[in-house]
Amino acid sequence: MIHLQIEEEIATITLDTNESNSFTLESFQKLSELVRKAESKLSKILILRSSRPGVFSQGLNLTELSGERTEEFLNLFLHYFFGILEQVYTFPGVVIAEVGGHAMGYGAMLAMASDFRYGMEGTRIGLPEVKLGIRVPSFVAMMLRDIIGSREADSHILQGNAYKASEAKELGLYDEIYSDANSIKDSSLKLARKLTKNSFGATRSSKQALRYLNGDLKKMLEFDKEKTFESLFTEDAIEGIAAAVAGRRPQFK
């Protein structure tokens, strides 16, 4: 499903949930466990990659989300949804996202939570949530604003269109883009090995300093959980998710 390999202080998590690498509650739980394990092993670098050609992650498994509407399930689902983003964003070492395919919704969010992002030509990345009737969290908006600037981030979130890889590179959302997955892996590993030579203590402290600049993350995440929970019960969210599962255009009021 999702695999972890640790070698020479470099931890690599490979996503392999299904053909679109979408996330269920079960796969969320596994990913959270592996990120936590990578941190416990004092990994200096965490690499996120996909085993699926042309796909990093297309986001959430909307079939499960449309079927499970109990408060208990959604609370637990959102606990992991936001918890994993926080784990990646605050990981003590450097996080490199090998975005070797399309990254939509939660896939894009995982990339945004990383420190470096390498993309692939001919793919897209973005937040289509407004087209699904789902709220974009403040935490996600903050990360995107930090990367590409507030005006561009706000426009992207409100329009819900995906960026081509070349556009993402021009905006700074990708550090580099490549024509094939092997080139992404080679460049990622080259950077990872270079960064392992830096002081881990200084890297960890510097990342804490960088994250401190964005204020009380815990408070923001709690606010996001509450508001996202509420939004999932709106008519638009129910219709948007159902339409996506059925492969049709949503009919919002």
UniProtKB/TrEMBL annotation:
Gene3D superfamilies: 2-enoyl-CoA Hydratase, Chain A, domain 1
Entry keyword set: Isomerase
Sample GO molecular function, one term: isomerase activity
InterPro entries: ClpP/crotonase-like_dom_sf (IPR029045), Enoyl-CoA_hydra/iso (IPR001753)
CDD domains: crotonase-like (cd06558)
UniProt key word Protein biosynthesis: no
One Pfam family linked to the record: ECH_1
KW Methyltransferase (keyword) present: no
GO BP: fatty acid beta-oxidation
Protein name: Enoyl-CoA hydratase/isomerase family protein
